Amino acid sequence: MLNAIELRGLKKRLGNFVLGPIDLTVPRGCIVGYIGENGAGKSTTIKLLLHLMFPDEGEIRLLGKDVQEFTPQMKKDIAYVFDDLYLPEDMTLKNVHNFHQKLYGQAWQDKTFSDLVARFNLPDSKSIKHFSRGMKMQLGLALALSHGARLLLLDEATSGLDPVIRDDVLDILLDYIQNENHTVFVSSHILSDLEKVADYIAFIHKGQLLFMETKDDLMNQYGIASLSEKQLEELDDKAIVGKRPHKFGVEVMLKRELVPSDFELEKVSIEEIMVYMIKGKRK
Amino acid sequence: MNIKIKNSSNDPIYLQIKNQIRDAILNGELEVGELLPSIRLLAKELRVSVITTKRAYDELENDGFIHSVQGKGSFVAPQNTELMKERFLKKIEASIAEILRYAKLAGMSHDELIEMIRTLESEHAECD
User: Fold this and answer.
1) ipTM over 0.90
2) Rounded distance, CA A144 to CA A124, Å?
3) Which superfamily does A3-206 belong to?
């Protein structure tokens, strides 16, 4: 079993929106950042992975097994954190703990959970409706990591959180993949976080997967230059991924291999790659 | 061993890691047989991709600086220092030949060239 996620011809229609067909392979032992605009199909993909929604066509294999064949016992292998907890608001940490202990039975790791709760300083007897957004996410993450899951899915889990909490989350994800059988698939709008920890970036646009590449290759492929209109005209059209014309010139994102080697290019961020690609498609 | 990643550097990150480990091996900071950190630990500590550290280790292995044992990790390989020196000398020779060619094209005198090396050397020393 070398792949954590395998999608073959995955397709889902929701009203006017069509996701796919998507083919995607995620090797185990890595962190994949799943990026795209609002409404591009990120959450739909993750819901399909979790079998909370059923595909119209195609195949989903997680940890080498078809999701349709997953038994309740096997579901402990998959963990997820959403942007909310989806637990009864009156529960306290203790209630939540007892509930998950029963839910996961043998697979539940008391010590891992207590350690994480202590690390996050979560209060024992406060009901979770009084938890801050950050505390809820921390509790969600602690629960997700405490039943021996080999695949962790995060859907916008850290949106709206401050940089310090997000940085802690990155450390926890990096700790998690110290075990080479562990894999993280994370959708996020905070691309600077993914830039720090992701091994691969998968980019979805209007329901279509544009690419999945290693982060390093992706960031080395493109460069940004500030040019005059005249300089722009001299360039190979194929080299131009996207541009932002302004009153005093034009900023362009270029494919490095298609421009002369003496051309001065600035490094790009994943955020710039996403913005230039999407805007480049609009023209 | 310290490893410094510079985002402003033109060298890709895997190369920065590779070169610094190579230097640590060559100057004896890392000893023959010493166990190197795992690619996952190194990636976590430096906050770089596992793919990046793996590439650095793969290239170090190809160049004969380390050897990896399945399930045990990567170790500093015995170095043939004479061979290494020989290799570096060849590289220096090739580079100097290129420098001389450019110097001729630019019309630089021998003294100007030496002066340039001295200036760069002192600048380099300041950077370290």
Assistant:
1) no
2) 18
3) P-loop containing nucleotide triphosphate hydrolases (3.40.50.300)
